[in-house]
Amino acid sequence: MSLWSLFQVASQVGGEILGDGSVVPSSLSMDTRTLQPGACFVALRADRDGHDFAAQAFEKGAGALLVDHPLDSDCPQLVVPDTLAALQRWGQTRLAAMRPTTVFGVTGSVGKTSTKELLAAAVGGWRTPGNRNNTLGLPEALATLPVGLGSAVLEMGMSTPGEIRRLTEIAPLDAGLITLVGTAHIENFPLGQQGVAEAKGELVAGLHQGGVWAHLAADRWCCWIADQPWARHAEALPVGDGQPFGWEGVESLGAAGEAFLLRTPQGAVPIRLQLPGEHQVRNAALAGALAIHLGFDPDQVARGLGTVTPEAGRGQLLVLAGGGTLLDETYNASSDSILACARTLLQLPGGEAVAVLGSMRELGPQAPRIHRETGAALKLLGVSRLWAYGDFAPHYAEGFGLRAMAFPDFEALRDDAAGLSAIPREARILVKGSRHWRAERVVEWFLSH
Question: What residues form DSSP beta bridges with 260?
C-alpha cells in the first residue's frame, strides 16, 4: 500500500506543514481511545474540541496531526482552515487517485453492514471497515485506500436528508444497493417514509450515468425511487418474485446458516451462507444478483458469499454455559430488523424463544405506535416472552400482552428479580436494541452468569 506523506496530502487539500512533511501516516483517527501508533490524529471541532486531545494523541504514538491552528507540539502538523473539510477532501482525492474499477455503495434501513460484507466477498473487493458509513468515517477510511483495487464496497448511512448526497460527492459510485426502506430515523423526516425513501434514494441519484442499483422487488419504496425522474439515469435491478434475479429453495441450517438457490437469467446458483436467518438470504441475493449482473463469475460469487461469518452484535450466535443460546443482534434496532431477527431465532433449535429488547430511537411521534406494533408482531410470530427496557418499554409490552415485562432502564432489568435472572436457562434468547440503550450489556450479563 503506497500511502501519502503529509507533503502529498497538503498538495491535495492545501494547508501549511509544520515539522517533518515526509511523515507517512498509517491511518487516520478522530478518537484517542482507538488511535493506533503512526496514525494522523484529526482534531475536529464538535461537542468537544479535538485540539484539546492532540497532546494525548501524540503521547499514544500519533505520527501527525491535522489541525486548524498551530499547536505547541513536536508532532508534525498539517494546518488547514477547516479540519472536517480537509478530512473529507483527503478521502475524496485519495479515492479519485486510486480509483478502483468498480465502486459500489450500500445503504438501507436495515442490514447495511452485513450486505456490505456479502457484496465485498462476492466481488472480491475492499470494503469500508466496521460501520464507517458517515461523513466522518467514510473519508477516514478512504484516506488510506489501497492501490490497485478491482472493486471497493462503501457503506453509506444517514439519519437526516442530504447525508448520502454528501457521501456520493466524496465517493462517486458506479453501482449501488438499497437493502430496504424502513422507518429508522423517521422522526427526522416530515414526509415520513417517503422522506426516508428520498434520503436513501440519494445513493441512486449519486450513481454515474448508466450505473446499476439492486433492490428488493417487493419493497414499494424502492420501486417508488426507481420511478422518480432523478433516478432514471440509472438502471434499477429488482430482485425477487417474478424477476430474472431472485431466490428460491431456502433451507434453514439452524446455527450453521442458510442454503438457497440464487436465480439468475443464466440459471440457478447454489449458495450456502454461514449467516443464519432468511433476512440474510435476501441480503445475499441482492449482493449476488448485482455482482453477477455486472459480469462477476457466478462460482466466484457463490464462494465469496459463503465465506462471510457473523460478527459480534450482528447475528453472532452464542452458546451459554448454563444452557440455552443467545442471538446477539445488539448493534442497533428498528422494527423491521427486530422482526427479521425474531424469525431467525424461531428457526434455531432449543428451548423457549424469548426476546430482550431495548427501545428504538428516532421514531418521533410514531414511536409509541411502532413499539406497540412490534410487540404485537413478535407475539404473533411465536416469541413466548418479552423483556423490554427503556423509554418505550411499556409500549412494547402493551402490544405483546401477557408475559411481557417492562423496565425503565438496564439497571432495573438487571437487578429486578423478574428481570434477566428470571429468563429460563434453556431459552433461545434474542437480544437487540438501539445504540442508545447499549444492549451489549445484556449479552455481557448472560456471558458472566
Answer: 271
pTM: 0.86
The span from the CA of 392 to the CA of 385, in Å, is: 17
Whether 392 shows a pLDDT value over 70: the answer reads: yes
The Cα–Cα gap between 35 and 29 comes to 6
| Grid cell for residue 70 | 498551530
Give the model confidence (pLDDT) of 212-231 as tens digits. 999 999 999 999 999 999 99
Read off the DSSP letter of residue 185.
T
Number of structural domains the chain divides into: 3
Contact in structure between 305 and 271 (CB atoms under 8 Å): yes
Co-location of 135 and 264 in the same domain: yes
By three-state DSSP, how is residue 279 classified? helix
Distance CA 213, CA 210 (A): 10
Is the residue at 92 inside a domain? no
Pair (68, 118) in one structural domain: no
Rounded to 5°, the CA angle 14-15-18 comes to 140
Alpha carbons within 13 A on the beta-carbon side of 67: 21
pLDDT (tens digit, 9 = 90+) per residue, 248-274?
Answer: 999 999 888 999 999 999 999 999 999
Owning domain of residue 23? 6-83
| Domain at 324, CATH number | 3.90.190.20
